[in-house]
């Protein structure tokens, strides 16, 4: 059986601590919930105000309904899973097929998220982007088996597919061009094909495609995607990755439509020079 490293076939392109208001000077004080996030940071979020003259006395008197309301836990927030596709090992780290890995590495560095854990057949990290919990993953199964890792993470954490963002290279986009889509097929990219297969054919998850351009002349696509970038391409790709980080922040904090608008109207490196 032939092992294909390239992702394109050569033939086709709470618990809470409540600060209760004490009956002094008849003031009212707000309560806060202290919630531990994925990165062991603490977020302070407001919960309903308790009145000194009524709420505190009701709780002290054993009013179960008021007490229950005062200690209601906040609704659990599902994390986003952000996956970058690529091939493991130094041999492939600077190649076109690994731009998904490069984008996830850049996100981790920008947001201070450690990617040192190995879990679910992936380099794995947890943290926050803004106030949104995220998990970052770089499958270590080689491109064609990326679904083994992604499917396991999605299943274990019960992540809604609308919060699974997959980042990968695209031969059909001009070099350095980004495209954000809410769903779709694999487009001949075998890493995406593997993920869709592991998700039982479900294609309804967002993806950020990074253009790597078409191979020159009659060069085989499987060979082209495993080639490194030249100096000019590396400079342009750095610019693209910065745009991608901003697009992902907008996606998580402001929604898909605003992020897609940002991506579609983003200037190229040439337009900014």
Fraction in beta strands: 15-25%
Fraction of helical residues: 25-40%
Secondary-structure-derived class? alpha/beta
- Rough outline: globular
> Can you give the mean pLDDT?
80
Give the helix tally: 9
Rg calc: 23 Å
Low-confidence stretches: 10-61
**What order do the helices and strands follow?**
EEHHEHEEEHEEHEHHHH
Main sheet: strands, sense, barrel: 7 strands, mixed
Topology, number of strands: 9
CA-CA gap between termini: 48 Å
Which sequence of strands runs across the widest sheet? 4-5-6-3-7-9-8
Written description of the protein model:
The structure is a single chain. The strands form two sheets. The chain has a seven-stranded mixed sheet with strand order 4-5-6-3-7-9-8, with helices on both faces. It has a two-stranded antiparallel sheet with strand order 1-2. The protein is built from nine helices and nine strands. Strand 5 (122-129) and strand 6 (132-139) form a beta hairpin. Helix 3 (99-111) packs across helix 7 (231-254). It has helices at residues 52-60, 64-70, 99-111, 146-157, 190-198, 221-224, 231-254, 256-265, 269-272, and strands at 29-36, 42-50, 80-84, 117-119, 122-129, 132-139, 164-170, 178-181, 207-211. It is an alpha/beta fold.
Précis, in short:
The protein is an alpha/beta fold and 273 residues long. The chain has helices spanning 52-60, 64-70, 99-111, 146-157, 190-198, 221-224, 231-254, 256-265, 269-272; strands spanning 29-36, 42-50, 80-84, 117-119, 122-129, 132-139, 164-170, 178-181, 207-211. It has a 7-stranded mixed sheet with strand order 4-5-6-3-7-9-8, with helices on both faces.
């Amino acid at each position: 059986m032939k092992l294909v490293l390239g992702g394109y076939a050569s033939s086709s392109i709470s618990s809470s601590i409540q600060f209760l208001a004490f009956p002094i000077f008849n003031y009212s004080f707000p309560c806060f919930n202290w919630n531990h996030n994925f990165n062991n940071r603490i977020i302070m979020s407001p919960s309903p105000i308790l009145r000194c003259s009524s709420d505190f006395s009701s709780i002290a008197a054993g009013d179960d309904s008021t007490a229950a309301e005062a200690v209601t836990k906040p609704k659990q927030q599902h994390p986003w899973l952000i996956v970058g596709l690529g091939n493991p090992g130094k041999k492939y780290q600077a190649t076109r097929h690994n731009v998904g890995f490069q984008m996830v590495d850049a996100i981790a560095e920008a947001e201070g998220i450690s990617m040192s854990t190995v879990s679910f057949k992936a380099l794995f990290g947890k943290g926050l982007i803004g106030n949104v919990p995220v998990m970052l993953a770089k499958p270590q199964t080689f491109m064609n088996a990326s679904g083994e890792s992604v499917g396991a993470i999605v299943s274990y954490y019960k992540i809604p597919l609308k919060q699974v963002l997959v980042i990968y290279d695209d031969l059909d986009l001009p070099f350095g061009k980004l495209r954000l889509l809410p769903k779709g097929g694999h487009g001949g990219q075998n890493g995406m094909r593997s993920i869709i297969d592991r998700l039982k054919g479900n294609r309804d998850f967002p993806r950020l495609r990074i253009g790597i351009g078409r191979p020159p002349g009659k060069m085989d696509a499987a060979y082209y995607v495993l080639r490194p970038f030249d100096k000019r391409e590396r400079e342009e790709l750095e610019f693209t990755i910065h745009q991608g980080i901003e697009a992902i922040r907008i996606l998580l904090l402001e929604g898909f439509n605003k992020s897609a608008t940002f991506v579609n109207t983003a200037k190229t490196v040439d337009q900014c020079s």
